[in-house]
From TrEMBL:
Residue span of region Disordered: 1-23, 210-244
CDD domains linked: HAD_5NT
UniProt KW keywords: Hydrolase
Name of protein: Putative hydrolase of the HAD superfamily
Top-level taxon of the source organism: Bacteria
């Protein structure tokens, strides 16, 4: 059974940055599988990695479909909206080979990505198994985890290729990955920056945590507002039933569960 969400979840700017994660500590003690998204979840949006990825996506779409860059960019956003990811739209509409696309769009510069010792300590202290599940590629995720000093902490890393190229938020994507990892949703927790991707985990019985930008950072609103899911009403609805908790301090949230 899904845990009962708090009656009044905190807004994005409430203090503390997490909403009563210990309200039902016994429930959290039952978690055996901790599943983390990657982009803007295990690193802050201010690093703007997705800016690089999106630029490479647009260039790839423009080249492969012989479109002007503005039209390629428009189509990329439309496919994201309709299919969950740009890649899913390209595969459905144009029978695109996904592997070259995944390799090219994720070949980005990570030189400015700092290690995250506080987050590493918090994740490392969790009891149970720890997973990364991203709509990007698994090799890209491993590169980012290495840059963040998190690469030795996880029992497995899953990319969209491991979900049969079904993207989150499709139920088939979660079912495929959870089956491969042997994750029982009733004893699992999902951490995500995209509120759309918490709906199915909630329906499956997982605890859900929305990871939001830190409002104290100067450009906190910028990358989040520019992200493709910023217009989703669940992003600002404090009563969305599939968002059980929200935090802009993932390390601090996890420390309160230990």
């Amino acid at each position: 059974m899904c845990p009962t969400p708090p009656s009044r979840p905190a807004s994005l700017h409430d203090k503390p940055p997490h909403h009563e994660p210990l309200r039902n500590r016994a429930d959290w003690a039952q978690v055996r599988d901790w599943v983390f998204d990657l982009d803007n979840t295990l690193y802050p949006p201010r690093l703007r990695l997705f800016d690089q990825i999106e630029a490479r996506m647009t260039a790839y779409v423009a080249r492969e479909l012989k479109l002007a860059p503005p039209e390629a960019d428009r189509l990329r956003h439309e496919y994201y909206r309709l299919y969950g990811t740009t890649l899913a739209g390209l595969m459905h509409e144009h029978d695109l080979d996904p592997l070259p696309y995944l390799h090219e769009v994720h070949e980005i510069d990570l030189g400015h990505v700092p290690p995250a010792p506080d987050l590493a300590a918090a994740i490392g202290a969790l009891s149970g198994r720890r997973w990364v599940y991203t709509n990007g590629s698994a090799p890209y995720a491993r590169r980012v985890l290495t840059a963040r000093g998190l690469d030795r902490l996880f029992d497995g890393v899953f990319g969209v290729e491991d979900a049969g190229f079904h993207p989150k938020p499709r139920r088939a994507a979660f079912e495929t990955v959870f089956a491969r990892a042997g994750i029982a949703p009733a004893t699992g927790a999902m951490f995500e920056d995209d509120p759309r991707n918490l709906s199915v985990p909630h329906e499956m019985g997982m605890r859900t945590v929305l990871v939001t930008p830190d409002p104290s950072e100067p450009d906190a609103a910028g990358p989040h507002a520019a992200s493709p899911h910023a217009a989703d009403p669940h992003a600002t609805d404090p009563d969305a039933p599939h968002i059980h908790h929200r935090t802009h301090d993932l390390a601090g949230f996890l420390r309160h569960l230990i």
